[in-house]
């Protein structure tokens, strides 16, 4: 259908009208594809936006997506969503970001939804929305079995709520807020009512009650997402989809700043740690294969060139001495850097097979070995909890003390760092204005074969306030690692082979 049309903009307008009931007169020039670039230009803009949010989309995927547009019915928005997702995405973890961007670049409607008034919000005599009755209405709708009709009703309800409850006057004119839409409604308090509706008429066991509880929470979460998506759509029409995409669309967990990472993003990173470990392992294996060729033995090469008149035709290399190095991690797990250190420890622990030995140490103001705590089944949050309860990483005060930790590490574990050791130190270098023990760090660096410091703070913040990062950087090679993507690149480049 799409391939035989000479008017891509007309197709998109028709798709919007068919899916949402929006009349042609209410379809403005933005945010649909412009007449100048057409549907192909709109697709390229969508791909560029995905790249900007950390989803790697190459030329071949873009061409595949263009083919999708020629064979799918553009009037079926959900089929178009699934088709583009199949063509553009490589991992399931990218789907949340993709859906948010798709809703902005291929909106379900433009302006106020036609047909949204089929679900009317309950009103008080003074004309304001009756929140109590609205909660009752929402609970009754969420109790229903999932179906296309129920989903359409919930979307219509969300649209009405955003229109009537979510509007506010911003500096640039009227705008919409998902927080304002839901702050009085507080849908989370409906869990018990929805559970009662889901288990009505049955002799519910504890298992049935738990299933109903999880289902109720999932349905409320889904409705909250519907409201947020409707809000983003309305705001994008006012300020532009590019601006909304920078703050309103879920980012990739690998791009989340370690110092501001949420628990959900940290959990997602934990689930992807094995995949990242495989990526790093393949890079290390490739570097190891190249290193096995050995360095050129100049003396033997010149001796062999005597048979060719002194011309070194055949190069002779030194016999490589394969051997996997030791790796030692010393990690600050206090405060906001705990997520960074915990994930890095988990990642490096997954690379155990690439090294002859891996030892992991953690500290707040005291240092202790935590290698034995890591395994393949313990969740990341449980690992952090076990470190604090089963080891001696916290002293009397419990505030970060890099100097005390470095001196304790050198004194209590003198055999940890040798001439075969690659030393990685993780932390922001904020010492709470205490002695940074620069001399101790220098002795450790001089002893180790390799030594690097990974810092989750932006480089422009090094040396500010109580940070001793600049002073440490004069002794040890320091690298900025603010997110998992940057960490993977740096670790893959620095780890020895």
Kindly list the characteristics that best describe this protein.
single chain, 497 residues, two-stranded antiparallel sheet
Q: How many β-strands, per DSSP?
A: 8
Rough outline: globular
Structural class: alpha/beta
Q: Give, in spatial order, the strands making up the sheet with the most strands.
A: 5-4-3-6-7-8
Q: Please tell me how large the radius of gyration is.
A: 29 Å
Major sheet: size, sense and barrel closure?
6 strands, mixed
- Average pLDDT, rounded to a whole number, is 82
How far apart are the termini? 55 Å
Specify the helix fraction band.
Answer: 40-55%
How many helical stretches? 19
The ordered string of helix (H) and strand (E) elements is: HHHHHHHEEHHHHHHEHEEHHEHEHEH
Oligomeric grouping of the chains: single chain
Detailed description of the structure:
This protein is of the alpha/beta class and 497 residues long. Helix content is 50%, strand content 8%. The chain is built from 19 helices and 8 strands. The chain has helices at 8-20, 38-52, 59-71, 77-88, 95-105, 131-143, 148-165, 178-183, 191-198, 206-239, 241-248, 263-291, 298-304, 338-349, 380-390, 402-412, 438-447, 469-473, 484-494, and strands at residues 167-170, 173-176, 326-332, 357-363, 367-369, 421-426, 450-455, 477-480. α2 (38-52) runs antiparallel to α5 (95-105) and α5 packs antiparallel against α11 (241-248). It is globular, with a radius of gyration of 29 Å. Mean pLDDT is 82; it is low at 1-36.
């Amino acid at each position: 259908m799409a391939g035989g049309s000479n008017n891509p903009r007309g197709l998109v307008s028709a798709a919007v009208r068919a899916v949402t009931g929006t009349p042609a007169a209410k379809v403005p020039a933005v945010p649909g594809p412009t007449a100048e670039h057409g549907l192909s230009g709109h697709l390229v803009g969508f791909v560029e936006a995905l790249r900007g949010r950390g989803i790697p989309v190459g030329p071949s995927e873009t061409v595949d997506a263009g083919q999708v547009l020629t064979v799918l019915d553009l009037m079926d928005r959900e089929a178009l969503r699934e088709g583009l997702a199949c063509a553009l995405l490589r991992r399931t973890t990218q789907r949340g970001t993709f859906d948010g961007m798709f809703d902005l670049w291929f909106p379900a409607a433009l302006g106020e939804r036609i047909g949204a008034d089929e679900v009317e919000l309950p009103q008080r005599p003074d004309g304001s929305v009756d929140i109590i009755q609205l909660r009752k209405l929402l609970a009754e709708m969420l109790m229903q079995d999932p179906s296309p009709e129920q989903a359409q009703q919930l979307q219509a309800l969300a649209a009405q709520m955003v229109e009537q409850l979510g509007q506010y006057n911003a500096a640039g004119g009227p705008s919409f807020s998902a927080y304002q839409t839901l702050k009085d409604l507080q849908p989370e308090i409906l869990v018990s009512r929805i559970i009662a509706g889901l288990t009505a008429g049955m002799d519910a066991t504890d298992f049935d009650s738990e299933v109903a509880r999880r289902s109720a929470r999932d349905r409320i979460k889904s409705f909250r997402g519907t409201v947020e998506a409707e809000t983003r759509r309305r705001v994008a029409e006012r300020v532009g989809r590019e601006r909304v995409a920078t703050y309103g669309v879920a980012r990739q967990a690998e791009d989340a700043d370690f110092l501001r990472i949420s628990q959900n993003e940290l959990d997602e990173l934990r689930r992807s740690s094995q995949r990242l470990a495989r990526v790093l392992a393949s890079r290390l294996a490739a570097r190891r294969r190249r290193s096995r060729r050995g360095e050129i033995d100049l003396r033997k090469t010149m001796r062999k060139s005597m048979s060719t008149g002194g011309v070194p035709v055949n190069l002779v290399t030194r016999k490589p001495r394969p051997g996997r190095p030791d790796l030692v991690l010393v990690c600050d797990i206090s405060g906001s850097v705990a997520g960074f250190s915990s994930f890095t420890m988990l990642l490096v622990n997954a690379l155990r097979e690439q090294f002859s030995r891996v030892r992991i140490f953690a500290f707040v103001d005291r240092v202790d070995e935590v290698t034995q705590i890591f395994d393949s089944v313990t969740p990341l949050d449980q690992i952090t909890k076990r470190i604090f309860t089963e080891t001696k990483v916290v002293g009397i005060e419990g505030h970060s003390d890099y100097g005390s930790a470095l001196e304790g590490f050198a004194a209590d574990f003198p055999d940890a760092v040798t001439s075969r050791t690659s030393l990685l130190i993780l932390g922001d270098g904020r010492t709470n204005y205490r002695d940074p023990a620069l001399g101790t760090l220098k002795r450790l660096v001089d002893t180790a074969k390799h030594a690097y410091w990974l810092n989750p703070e932006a480089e422009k913040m090094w040396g500010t306030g109580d940070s001793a990062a600049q002073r440490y950087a004069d002794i040890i090679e320091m690298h900025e690692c603010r997110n998992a993507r940057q960490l993977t690149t740096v670790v893959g480049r620095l780890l020895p082979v």
